[in-house]
From TrEMBL:
It comes from Corynebacterium glucuronolyticum. One of its GO terms (biological process) is ribose phosphate metabolic process. PANTHER family: ADP-RIBOSE PYROPHOSPHATASE, UDP/ADP-SUGAR PYROPHOSPHATASE. This is NUDIX hydrolase. The keyword Hydrolase applies. Gene3D superfamilies: Nucleoside Triphosphate Pyrophosphohydrolase. Keywords: Hydrolase.
Length: 205
């Protein structure tokens, strides 16, 4: 059975902000056409950093939900030319002051495909050592973290203590089949980065 060929008839830019952009696409549908609002995102990484059977878990304030959440070290892919692995290494240092000598890919995921193109690459970092953590700013200045046994983290997921979807995926998938960090990140979004480059070059967003 052949699937329907969805195509974009027109696109309208609605909002530009530092870390997101919003557009409205008019898309062909099996029964006609419909508007779809899309949040454009840089994409992100997260790290399951494991040492002696325990993982680094952060507690960080998230203003969108008005709460401190348990999370993995993570960050935006918002630096031009930076690979996902380089971003993961940088964020691990910046957020928890750690470095890792061994890296593997756990999984890639899309967080909210109904309206957002954000994709996240989750790494497994081992052979861990301490490194100098830069001075933190904004929410990260309030960030705390601790080593939590992986089995305990999994129980925290099942008990509802961990509700961040990226953390849940990383914790529950850790220990399964892993892939090379060189695996192509085909889901990595590009629309927002392309839009920012066009604006910097003086072109149309």
């Amino acid at each position: 059975m052949m699937s329907f060929d969805f195509s974009v008839l027109s696109s309208e830019h609605l909002l530009d902000a530092p870390i997101i952009s919003v557009r409205r696409d008019l898309v062909t549908m099996p029964t006609g056409e419909a508007n779809r609002e899309i949040v454009e995102h840089f994409g992100a990484i997260a790290v399951v950093c494991e040492k002696d059977g325990a993982i680094a878990l952060e507690k960080q304030y998230r203003h969108s939900v008005g709460a401190h959440l348990w999370e993995l070290p993570a960050g935006l892919l918002d630096k031009p030319g930076e690979t996902a692995l380089e971003c993961a290494q940088r964020e691990l240092k910046e957020e928890v002051g750690l470095a890792a000598g061994s890296w593997a890919l756990i999984t890639d995921l899309v967080t909210s495909p109904g309206f957002c193109d954000e994709a996240v690459r989750i790494f497994h970092a081992t052979d861990v050592s301490k490194t100098l953590r830069p001075e933190a700013e904004d929410e990260e200045a309030d960030l705390t973290w601790e080593w939590v046994p992986l089995d305990t983290a999994r129980r925290m997921v099942l008990d509802g203590e961990i509700c961040n979807s990226i953390a849940i995926a990383g914790i529950m998938c850790c220990g399964g089949k892993e892939r090379s960090v060189d695996t192509p990140f085909s889901l990595r979004p590009v629309a927002l980065a392309d839009r920012k480059r066009a604006l910097q070059a003086g072109g149309r967003p």
